[in-house]
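User: Let's play a game. I give you a shape written as tokens, and you guess the letters that built it. Ready? Here's round one.
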């Protein structure tokens, strides 16, 4: 007897972008939106905007505070979209008091941590670091995977 299995539609190949300019941040944001719309099913508009904002903030932080260049990796599983931004600085991100009048920022890291389901800072490659963010495609439900299980899934399937 033959058995059959139903599989989900294939997700797009992981997206990798390398850049070293503030102009590249806009390209990364646009690429994130395109990636979100290429998923099957595509992310809803609000989720695509959230993904684009997380990508934009992580890329901006890498250019401003992480050594001036970055590598962005996007991939998706059935449960989540995974973002990884690597830069050459070993200094981990930290929150600072936002500048409400001078325009020097201070909002990005707080926003990333608020918008993503999980955020992890990993040493490397080399002397740098990688910030990984997980944005769920579905709302968490009781009995969902633990953070450790999700982190393991990111390492084994996407990035």
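Assistant: Ready! My guess for every position:
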């Amino acid at each position: 007897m033959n058995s059959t299995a139903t599989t989900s539609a294939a997700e797009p190949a992981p997206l990798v972008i390398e850049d070293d300019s503030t102009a590249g941040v806009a390209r990364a944001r646009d690429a994130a939106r395109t990636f979100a719309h290429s998923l099957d099913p595509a992310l809803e508009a609000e989720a695509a905007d959230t993904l684009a904002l997380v990508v934009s903030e992580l890329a901006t932080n890498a250019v401003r505070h992480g050594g001036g260049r970055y590598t962005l990796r996007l991939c998706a599983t059935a449960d989540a979209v995974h973002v990884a931004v690597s830069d050459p600085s070993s200094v981990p991100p930290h929150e600072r008091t936002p500048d409400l009048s001078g325009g020097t920022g201070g909002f990005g890291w707080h926003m990333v941590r608020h918008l993503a389901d999980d955020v992890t800072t990993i040493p490397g490659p080399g002397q740098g670091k990688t910030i990984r963010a997980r944005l769920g495609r579905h709302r968490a439900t009781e009995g969902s995977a633990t953070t450790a299980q999700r982190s393991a899934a990111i390492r084994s399937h996407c990035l």
